[in-house]
Amino acid sequence: MLSKSCFLPLVAALLATPACKSTAAEPAAPTEAEANAAVLTGSTLIGEYSAATLAGRVQGVPLAGSLVRYPIKVYRLTYRTRTPEGAETTASGAVLVPVAGAAPLPVLSYQHGTIAPSSEGQAPSHYAAGSDVWSVVSVVASTGFVVSAPDYLGYGASKALPHPYEHAASLASASADMLRATREFCEKQKVSVNQKNYLLGYSEGGYATMALHRLLEEKYATTLPVAASAPGAGAYHKSAFARYILGATQPLNFLSSYVWVLRTYDRLYTLNRPFAFYYQEPYATQLQANPFASVPSQQSQLFAGPFRQAVLNNSDPGLKAALADNDLYDWKPRAPLALFHGTADDYVPFFNSQDAYDAMQRRGATQVELHPIPGGNHFSSAVQYTLGAYLFISQH
């Protein structure tokens, strides 16, 4: 769930690798005309960057110079999408285009990890120096992928909106509409792309990647077929994760981000519970004044007893339904999918990926792989995730 900028700590591994039911509204499946409708509303060239420039951004990493193949052009796109409540709005993202000749290029949709509101400038469309898209994702693009990097709602052009943190449907729809806008942009700019769409992301980005994969196969199977996806360390089993958190006796360092999840679900599913329903004092008052206030690492000190029991006993129908609506573990993907997860993940427990793999196997999925990262925690596993995910998509 919570992540440092998804790929910033991962650059060493990548560059060492050879290139190769709900109360919240969900949109109905689009008609063929809707699936092909224009969504792009604007584009701005941010800059063109030589291979030498890209290599210079990672000059401390061995082999960087030999792995950066092409210069890239980076654009900021704006496009039409919908809020979780169903209203049309304008969102944004970055598109990274390798200057790689005439051969049709594959498209890679990159879903970023958690960005706190105070760090909104790290969103992809800002292309800020030091951000993941500026550094390692630019290297990925330079190897021959057109990269579509959605900001999500709540960042960039839609920063006036609250970010729907860990809300599956809106993460998926914002990412899918950005992918549509990217392909529309490529057509306008005469950038030749093939039909392959690859999906990558870690932590919140892993969760968004899983949601996007499911949405594309359910609603855009013809227009946006998935070639392969490799989500990493996502909280796919939200219902079980909630029980894990509310039953924990050990310190949990990610509780401030779980407060964000609860606030999102309370709003989007119109639960409208007072802060005192979720939290003990003084934290109920502090969080009402500042939703990102510090909280203790012991869940028993933070959460109110009745709320804790409601989760553990599944006795609150509204809350149970909201959590279940965001479960992403139990469905049948058709395209190849590889789940990467550290077995000692201290932010998003490994059972999220194990449960997804087991459920998909029971449903008869034949192209799903589970890649445990032995002993890896949420941050140390990111390096091996990057290597494994890049190799996985290169085989498909």
List the helices and strands and how they pair.
Blueprint: H1 11-15, H2 32-35, E1 40-49, H3 51-57, H4 64-67, E2 72-82, E3 88-98, E4 105-111, H5 136-142, E5 146-150, H6 168-188, E6 193-202, H7 204-219, E7 226-232, H8 238-246, H9 255-268, H10 275-278, H11 283-289, H12 299-302, H13 305-312, H14 317-325, E8 337-342, H15 351-362, E9 368-373, H16 381-394
Parallel strand pairs: 4-5, 4-6, 6-7, 7-8, 8-9
Antiparallel strand pairs: 1-2, 2-3, 3-5
Signal peptide: 1-24
GO molecular function: hydrolase activity
Keywords: Hydrolase, Signal
Overview of the structural elements:
The chain has 396 residues and is of the alpha/beta class. It has 2 domains: 8-237 and 329-394, Alpha/Beta hydrolase fold, catalytic domain (Rossmann fold); 238-325, no CATH class. 37% of the residues lie in helices and 18% in strands. A 9-stranded mixed beta sheet has the order 1-2-3-5-4-6-7-8-9, with helices on both faces. β8 (337-342), α15 and β9 (368-373) form a beta-alpha-beta unit. Mean pLDDT is 91; it is low at 1-23.
